[in-house]
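step: validate -> pass
step: tokenize input -> pass
step: predict -> running
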Amino acid sequence: MKFFSKMKWGLVAGLAAILAQPADAIVDPDNLGQWERPTEIGPDKEVQGFLVNLGPTGARAILREKLFVVKHVFADSPAAGRLEIDDEITGVDGEPFARHTFGKFYGMGHEVGYEGPMMDLGNAIEDSEGGDGRLVLDVVRDGSPMTVEIELPVIGRFSDTFPLDCEKSALLARRAADYIVERKEEHGRHVHEQGKVGLALLAHGRMDEAVELAEEWLEPPDETLWTWFPSYRSIFLSEYFLQTGDERVLPTIRTLTERLYLAQVLDPELYLDRMHGGRPQAANYLKGGLGHGHRISGYGTMTITTLLAMLAWDLAESCGIETDPMHVDLAFACIHEHTHESGYMGYRFATGAYTPAGRQGLSILVHQLAGDRDPGDHVERVTRGLVNAKTRLNDGHGDNAQAVFWALLGIQLADDKQAVRRVFDYNRAFINMARTHDGAFVVQPGRNAAEKAYYLSPRIQQTAGMAIVLGTGDPVLRIQGAEDR
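step: predict -> pass
step: emit ->
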């Protein structure tokens, strides 16, 4: 039996179903107050708050059930001089937007996605860029209905196999890579951002910048830093070594490999007295799992930190670094034991909270690179689970850019090509809506009450991630599916 009893999984599923009912549709129409809470990072500092990006138009807006309320327009963008503050966008080319369902959707539920204005406008952008570039919006301005025409560059449509064999995907990936190189002043110290930036540099042959980062990371991070630091740095340095053969990084990779062992639970009995937030946490310290920090900390083991360590260990082995099979075996056993039969992967293993999409994509990736570690149907189940979770790609806990990146990257390595298509085709509009007018990708509001990504790295992390995801048509990195060297 998996880590949830049938009763507990039933309660979680029942809760998700209750949350998804129309009567509970509008849980927080004020976006937790974030419509008017700006970020302090990059060009988005001038935007009034955490708004919905309206794709490459250059406009940002508040999302209502069946319309957008424009609250910002970037200068020198296609929407400049066309849309005005407080314009209500109600549809496209005479077709009203469908209704969007608001609400927190935790647990295993996946019934509600981003259908409504976001999906409708994202699809209209696709039609415009694949046609004559005209995007005709239905607008109510000062109480009067009108149409507003915005001219978008004609760059074509995503192919039926995108991001593979797709000129639009390749173009957007190159532009994203250019953005992160040209906007170094926007780069922060956020660990998820740093790791993805480094991988994007490698993926697009920006070797001068990649060498600079590798040299900066030759000194291992302080042992007290969270597990994320040694994981991301080891993943980057391993991919870097596989491309360059620069042996200077090998001692660092070896140190990081061993550092990750310190964050793994070897004996759950040692954690019986652990508390977090005034609550006992012993049940969350699972054998073989890794936590937030070295020698574990906080509320126990986590799925994503465990999977990131497994990925780091696999890539280290590709560089000739010997890993301890005991630690690796325990991690795989933990993931296999505590993945639900549906393919759902919990945030802390022993809880059913939060969307699983990013963890599922990362698990597919880890298992495909490891080769013979699947104990039967794990990858198949997780792939099916990710297809279900495609509706909640943007709802990752704390940092939804993580979920978007690992889900879209990992699903591409699934053997089930129909599953790949279902995930990408559903999120085609989302990808268009996340694009900015100047070649970047920006974090979009999700359904999670603890979302922080926009305030940690509004553009750079998402842009670096999409440079990798959309660049898989010409894979360079092992995590993109490039052959092991």
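step: describe -> The first strand starts at residue 52 and ends at 53.
step: cleanup -> pass
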